[in-house]
Design goal:
This protein has helices at residues 54-75, 91-94, 97-108, 124-130, 151-170, 189-198, 210-219, 229-233, 276-282, 290-293, 296-304, 310-318, 320-334, 338-357, and strands spanning 14-20, 25-33, 39-40, 43-46, 81-88, 114-115, 179-183, 202-206, 224-225, 240-243, 262-263, 286-287. The chain has 361 residues and is of the alpha/beta class. The chain has 2 domains: 14-62 and 82-143, Rossmann fold (3-Layer(aba) Sandwich), CATH 3.40.50.10860; 151-295 and 322-346, Rossmann fold, CATH 3.40.50.720. β11, α9 and β12 (286-287) form a beta-alpha-beta unit.
């Protein structure tokens, strides 16, 4: 139990451990906060095969991701708290319709306190299956009343955050003529590459899956590919580094060798541990807080709950540009790194919501 109440991970309202022996389902659902409304966050399907204790790793991931969603939704201006779910196992081996339906029943048992969507290892077609047994499911296909692939607006939002970073640092909201390195060109990264190329950026990519890089290079021969993330972050003349895969990309090994002036990407929980944000600031690297710039996807799925309108959702995601700029301004005014400034703004909104709903407040 100590993990659940650890000071760096705690404050969660509810954590549910789910198991269905018949389908092999083992899952964790973490609800961090409902101060602003029902918790909203995706379902990750991951094996944690390299961890000594995969179940402990999944719990830790769910807690961290749920907390991040509270902050993300607060700064996105959504009337939602933060939650996240993790299904433990290799999706290529374990995923089945029966398992997803069983998972949906667990989410439904929370009575709307948690609304789920796609994340790493889950897709629109999976949410269609989950929705058979759970009405609190977003990220469904348009054929099933949903918004479809949320990675479209996630990438758009990251691009807006990158434009804001460019304006703050170089005076213009454009990446034209800048060299941008994208680590991970899957669901979100490939859309981000297209935005960058349209804006006139020079793009360098890498991905652990060769086929993902090949797909990008086939569509855009002007894109340069490097062997791995280590090569990418050391690329000479790199202006912006965009981590778009799993978390922890900014750590004690990577930060000292980063060549980029800006870090702005789609991955969640990019800071491997507290203090990394100070290391970035100490090196003069501008960090656009991940949960701010990658909130386009959650904006999209939240809109789905009210009858999806793409233009309306895109207009809201476009505001990530101004939100990111305001965070840089707050950071400068308070003399703190942008990650700290973003946390303060999000915590203020959640605290105000808790006060206003208290009897007699």
């Amino acid at each position: 139990m100590h993990t659940l109440f650890h000071s760096e991970q705690g404050g969660h309202e509810q954590v549910v451990l789910c198991q269905d022996r018949e389908t092999g389902l083992k899952a964790v659902i973490a609800v961090h906060s409902t101060a602003l409304g029902p918790a909203l966050g995706g379902t990750r399907f991951h094996a944690y095969a390299t961890e000594a204790d995969p179940e402990e790793a999944a719990l830790r991931d769910a807690l961290n991701l749920a907390r991040g969603m509270s902050y993300k939704n607060a700064l996105a201006g959504l009337d939602h708290g933060g939650g996240k779910a993790v299904i433990i196992g290799d999706p290529e081996q374990l995923k089945s319709e029966a398992l997803l339906e069983a998972y949906g029943r667990f989410v439904a048992s929370l009575g709307g306190r948690y609304v789920t969507a796609c994340d790493v290892g889950t897709y629109v077609r999976d949410m269609d299956v989950v929705s058979r047994t759970c009405r609190w499911t977003t990220g469904r296909s348009p054929e099933n009343g949903g918004a479809g692939d949320s990675s479209v607006l996630t990438a758009f939002g990251v691009f807006q955050g990158m434009r804001a970073s460019a304006r703050h640092l170089w005076g213009e909201s454009t990446l034209r003529g800048r060299r941008v390195g994208v680590a991970g060109v899957g669901k979100v990264g490939r859309h981000l590459v297209e935005h960058l190329l349209e804006d006139g950026a020079e793009v360098v990519v890498t991905d652990v899956r060769a086929e993902a890089v090949e797909r990008i290079r086939a569509a855009h021969p002007e894109v340069t590919a490097v062997a791995d993330t280590d090569a990418l972050i050391r690329t000479e003349g790199l202006d912006v580094y965009a981590p778009c895969a799993l978390g922890g990309a900014l750590n004690d090994e990577t930060v000292p060798v980063l060549t980029a002036r800006v870090v702005c990407g789609a991955a969640n929980n990019q800071l491997a541990h507290p203090g990394v944000e100070k290391d970035l600031a100490g090196r003069g690297i501008l960090y656009a807080p991940d949960y701010v710039v990658n909130s386009g996807g959650v904006i999209q799925v939240a809109d789905e709950l009210h009858g999806f309108d793409f233009a309306r959702a895109k207009a809201k995601a476009e505001k990530i540009h101004d939100t990111t700029l305001s965070i840089f301004e707050r950071a400068a005014a308070d003399g703190v790194p942008p990650a700290v400034a973003a946390d303060r703004i999000a915590e203020q909104r959640m605290a105000e919501a808790r006060r206003t709903r208290r009897p007699g407040a």
